[in-house]
Write a structure and sequence with these properties.
With 156 residues, chain A is an alpha/beta fold. In chain A, 40% of the residues lie in helices and 17% in strands. In chain B, helix 1 crosses helix 6. The two termini of chain B are 29 Å apart. Classes of the chains: A alpha/beta (156), B alpha/beta (152).
C-alpha cells in the first residue's frame, strides 16, 4: 500500500471527458489529487514554471500524466516530447488518452516514450470501463516511480 | 479480439508457469513465448535469423521482463531493446520481487513502460498478472508490430 495519495495530471480540453476521467480516478482512495488543464501550455507551465518549480509543496509533480493528443494550440505529441526530454519529468509515466487509434499515431507516441496508449471508445459505457481498468492498473497493480516530492531519502 | 504475442523472459519455472497460466485464463488465449535468459530473448528479437526471416520471428506485442536473470540482467536487456530500431517501441513491463525505489526509478528511466512487483502470495501474484493482461491486452493499444521491421 502506498503511503501517500497519488497526484494525477490530466491534460484534456473536453469537459465531459475530463469529468469521466476524474470520476473514474475517484473510485478508490489512491488518487488524492487530479490536476486538470485544458491545454498543453498550461500543463507545461505547472510542470516547469518558475513559481511552481520553486514550490513543489503546493504544486507537486504528478505521479502519472494522462494526456489527450488533440488539443487546442500545442499538441499532445509536442508536450509528450518535452516531458520525456526533461530530467525532472522523464520517468513520470505518461498515458496517452485520445480518440485516434491510427497505427501511425500509436507508434509515434510509443517511439517518443509514451508509457501506454488508450484509444477513447465512442460509447460512453465502453469509455467508463476502460477508465476503470486504467485506474485499477496504474493505481493498484503497477508500481510507480518515486517522485522527488514523495521520496523520504532523495538519492544523490 | 486478436490474440497478442507476449514475450516472457523469466528464469523461475514456477513463476513462468503461473504467469503463462494467468495470461491464458480467459476467452483470449494469448501466445506466450518464454525465454529463460536475456541472451536467448535478444537472439530471438535481433539475432541473425530474426533479421533474415522477420516473419518467422514476429515482434511481441508486449514484453514481460524479470529483472533478476542469470547472466545479463533485465535492466541491461531493457537498455538494448530501447536502443534497437526494430524493438524500441515494444512496451516492456518489468517484473521483479524487489520493491527497492532506486531500482524502480532506474527501470522507468531506462524506458520501462510499467513496473510490477511480484507478490509473495500465489493468489495475489495471479491477480496482478490477470490485471496486467486486462490492461495491456484488452484495454490499451499496442504498437503495430508488423510495420516496425519495414521501417528504418
Amino acid at each position: 500500500m502506498r503511503s501517500q495519495a497519488l497526484t494525477v495530471m490530466l491534460i484534456e480540453d473536453n469537459d465531459d471527458h475530463a469529468e469521466l476521467v476524474s470520476a473514474a480516478l475517484a473510485v478508490n482512495d489512491l488518487v488524492g489529487n487530479v490536476v486538470r488543464f485544458a491545454d498543453a501550455e498550461a500543463g507545461l507551465g505547472y510542470l516547469f514554471g518558475e513559481t511552481q518549480s520553486a514550490n513543489r509543496q503546493d504544486y507537486p509533480l504528478p505521479d502519472l500524466i494522462l494526456l489527450d493528443l488533440m488539443l487546442p494550440g500545442m499538441s499532445g505529441i509536442e508536450m509528450l516530447k518535452v516531458v520525456k526530454q526533461r530530467a525532472e519529468t522523464k520517468s513520470v509515466p505518461v498515458i496517452v488518452l485520445t480518440t485516434s487509434s491510427q497505427d501511425s499515431k500509436i507508434s509515434e507516441a510509443y517511439e517518443l516514450g509514451a508509457n501506454s496508449y488508450i484509444a477513447k471508445p465512442v460509447g460512453h459505457q465502453d469509455f467508463v470501463i476502460k477508465l476503470a481498468e486504467l485506474n485499477m492498473f496504474w493505481s493498484v497493480t503497477a508500481e510507480l516511480p518515486p517522485t522527488t516530492n514523495r521520496q523520504s531519502n532523495p538519492s544523490p | 479480439m486478436t490474440p497478442v504475442l507476449i514475450m516472457l523472459v523469466e528464469d523461475n519455472d514456477d513463476h513462468a508457469e503461473l504467469i503463462t497460466d494467468a495470461l491464458n485464463n480467459t476467452i483470449v488465449a494469448n501466445r506466450v513465448l518464454r525465454f529463460v535468459n536475456a541472451e536467448s530473448a535478444l537472439e530471438y528479437l535481433m539475432g541473425e535469423k530474426a533479421h533474415a526471416a522477420p516473419e518467422e520471428y514476429p515482434l511481441p506485442g508486449v514484453i514481460l521482463l524479470d529483472v533478476k536473470l542469470p547472466g545479463m540482467d533485465g535492466l541491461r536487456m531493457l537498455r538494448k531493446i530501447r536502443k534497437n530500431k526494430r524493438t524500441r517501441r515494444v512496451p516492456v513491463v518489468i517484473l521483479t520481487t524487489s520493491k527497492r525505489e532506486d531500482e524502480i526509478a532506474r527501470g522507468y528511466e531506462l524506458g520501462a513502460n510499467s513496473y510490477i512487483v511480484k507478490p509473495v502470495k500465489f493468489e495475489e501474484f495471479r491477480a496482478k498478472i490477470i490485471d496486467l493482461k486486462m490492461y495491456w491486452v484488452l484495454t490499451s493499444e499496442l504498437p503495430n508490430s508488423v510495420q516496425e521491421s519495414v521501417e528504418g
